[in-house]
Structure to design on (257 residues):
């Protein structure tokens, strides 16, 4: 074969080696921005030599912690005005209703998970004070239920998922190349645009970083509220292969917000 064949073959191999990799499947941990309680996973596919389409799943683990002061403040609101005879009748008619108590027994009997059964047995124990004979008993029951709710919320995390699609264009060549998605500028005086990039660590095509950033093209202008456009700049949202783990005190996982 001619030397030109080998030259062309070498150039083709080098060009292929410099082709920007497409992240097939990935799971990234939070690194910076207002996303530190979420992970990002997804998958991408090539749609041309310079474009790829990705589907992302932002999995958010949120937890609402109620402080002891907040709990005490709620308790103080339960005063004599809220614990009148009318409210006593309402509590007996709802919480202490025989059908409600029987339903609670049947519900607990059908629970197979011992931790969940123990959790609801605490509710049953509180409701054992039924029927309520006076305002003091009603107030005591309400306080115990509120404390149980307070303790439950502080060990409960909610899981939610935000799924979205983005199309990326390859930028640059060689080790410095990356994928970028740029949204259409929003119609505002600041010229705000969202830019998302995906880069992999040089020589490690499986180690990716996702960076989303708000770009203000006219920072010298003002917002509709009269503030400088620079107030709209935020810390980049970064998920990465070397991001941080998420630490939560969760014993119960709920779904939704």
């Amino acid at each position: 074969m001619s030397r030109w064949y080998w030259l062309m073959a070498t150039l083709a191999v080098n060009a292929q080696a410099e082709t920007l990799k497409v992240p097939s499947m990935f799971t990234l941990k939070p690194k910076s921005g207002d996303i530190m309680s979420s992970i990002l996973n997804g998958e991408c596919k090539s749609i041309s030599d310079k474009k790829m389409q990705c589907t992302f799943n932002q999995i958010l683990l949120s937890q609402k912690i109620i402080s002891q002061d907040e709990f005490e403040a709620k308790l103080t609101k339960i005063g004599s005005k809220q614990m009148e005879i009318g409210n006593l009748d309402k509590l007996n008619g709802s919480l202490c209703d025989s059908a409600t108590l029987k339903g609670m027994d049947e519900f607990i009997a059908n629970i197979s998970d011992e931790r969940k059964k123990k959790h609801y047995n605490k509710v049953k124990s509180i409701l054992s004070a039924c029927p309520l004979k006076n305002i003091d008993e009603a107030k005591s029951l309400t306080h115990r239920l509120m404390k149980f709710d307070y303790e439950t919320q502080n060990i409960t995390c909610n899981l939610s998922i935000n799924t979205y699609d983005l199309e990326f264009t390859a930028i640059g060549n060689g080790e410095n190349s990356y994928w970028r998605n740029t949204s259409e500028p929003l119609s505002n005086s600041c010229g705000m645009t969202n830019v998302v990039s995906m880069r992999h660590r040089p020589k490690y095509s499986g180690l990716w970083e996702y960076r989303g950033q708000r770009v203000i093209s006219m920072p010298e202008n003002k917002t509709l509220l009269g503030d400088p456009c620079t107030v709209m700049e935020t810390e980049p949202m970064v998920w990465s292969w070397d991001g941080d783990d998420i630490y939560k005190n969760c014993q119960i996982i709920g779904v939704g917000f």
